[in-house]
Amino acid sequence: MDSSDQSTFEVSNLRVVRNGNEILKSISFRAAPGELIGLLGPSGSGKSTLMRSLLGVQAITGGSARIMESAAGSPALRGRLGYMAQSAAVYLDLTVEENIRYFAGVLVQPLSEVARVMDVVALTSFSRRLVSSLSGGERTRVSLGIALLGSPPALILDEPTVGLDPILRRDLWRTFEALARTGATVIVSSHVMDEAARCARLLLLRDGTLLFDGTPASLLATSEAPGYDEAFERLIEGSR
């Protein structure tokens, strides 16, 4: 990416050391508006720590993480950075609409946002259903709707498709692609390598090291592998 390009995320030599262990080892990358980025790697690779660093809730040992020219965690980012946790952060005893309406109030968003995000995540027909009565995939969509309140230009989604059936996963990825087309920068974490093909760009982590930053096509070409699982394995072997 050219240095003159506008960046939504800019991470430079980011290091995190926790309890004497180096969790992130000098991570650097930039992300432009409209990019759909897959943050992939096995459990323990550092994905969660990187996301926490971008959210400003992780103490950084060295380097920097900036989002839209503000330091991660800055009050200036309130309402401009949407986050969806892996576990659905919703109230089970409220309806879909009541949940989204509540968080719209917290974020000081107009009531028109409630209807808009329910439409985006295809939950308008579920608006009066208690969240406790929804399936796992439907609860995931409620959480995504909350993250989309105010149309934040930057989104961090933590394993949003985990445990979902193939059809629901496909539908969510279509939503992520549509969000990127509106100009939002979307970072989606996953440990499922077959989701790599749905991303415009991949960041592959292992043991706190950024092994690869590029397109899915370039990953396959560089590794000369027939599939993404094999490509990741070859990257690991080549890094030893």
Walk me through the structure:
This protein is of the alpha/beta class and 240 residues long. It folds into two domains: 1-76 and 155-163 and 182-240, Rossmann fold; 81-151. It has seven helices and ten strands. Strands 6-7-8-3-9-10 form a six-stranded mixed beta sheet, sandwiched between helices. Strands 2-1-4-5 form a four-stranded antiparallel beta sheet, with helices on one face. Helix 2 packs across helix 3 and helix 6 crosses helix 7. The protein starts with 8 loop residues before the first strand and ends with a helix.
Comma- or semicolon-separated keywords:
240 residues; alpha/beta; Rossmann fold; 2 domains; six-stranded mixed beta sheet; four-stranded antiparallel beta sheet; 10 strands; 32% helix; 25% strand; globular
Chain-wise SSE layout:
Elements (H helix, E strand, L loop, with lengths): L8 E10 L2 E11 L4 E5 L6 H9 L6 E6 L2 E2 L9 E4 L11 H11 L5 H9 L15 H12 L6 E5 L7 H16 L3 E6 L10 E6 L2 E6 L1 H8 L4 H12 L1
Parallel strand pairs: 3-8, 3-9, 6-7, 7-8
Antiparallel strand pairs: 1-2, 1-4, 4-5, 9-10
Helix pairs in contact: 2-3, 6-7
